[in-house]
What we know:
By secondary structure, chain A is an all-beta fold. Chain A has no helices and 11 strands.
Amino acid sequence: DQQVKQNSPSLSVQEGRISILNCDYTNSMFDYFLWYKKYPAEGPTFLISISSIKDKNEDGRFTVFLNKSAKHLSLHIVPSQPGDSAVYFCAASENYGQNFVFGPGTRLSVLP
Amino acid sequence: DVKVTQSSRYLVKRTGEKVFLECVQDMDHENMFWYRQDPGLGLRLIYFSYDVKMKEKGDIPEGYSVSREKKERFSLILESASTNQTSMYLCASSSSRGIYTEAFFGQGTRLTVV
């Protein structure tokens, strides 16, 4: 059974609007969460992370929100740009980053 | 610039062949990982290593083995390749010093077994 779930396989958004990607997890021992972005034929690249002691972390256009009681996190991209079109993976760790469990990914398409 | 390098971008192998996928990192990281990526399944962990000569099974180790003789190099071995091992293979490394570190990935190896 998947410990990290991304229930939307794909998402389409207009350029300039907000993209919201969601992730749910089942393991209450997870204490660190990350988002990765992946273009075709390339390895994933780290985007942003959040520890379980926070509920929000921002980096430029990217913000990650964590709701521990709901075991839910989300990635907000504002404003969305065509270059943001990629597959986004949510990942979680229960050892502060020593091992990582990944979700199935959400393919984001930002339309010009 | 930090780097994880996988030896091949694309490989085509025959069923039954022994296949070696090599990964090298230049960041002096203790931890190294092998994942495979399949549509709808995300990244699944095959094996990982916390130190030289150490290895731990991940979620899907069947049909695979690994070798870590040097800190910077982590090899994935398909003992007898099968068509269901056709996939994108991704190597990653991370530091065990400090907390809240991220994994750095290589560019991936697209393996096709025919």
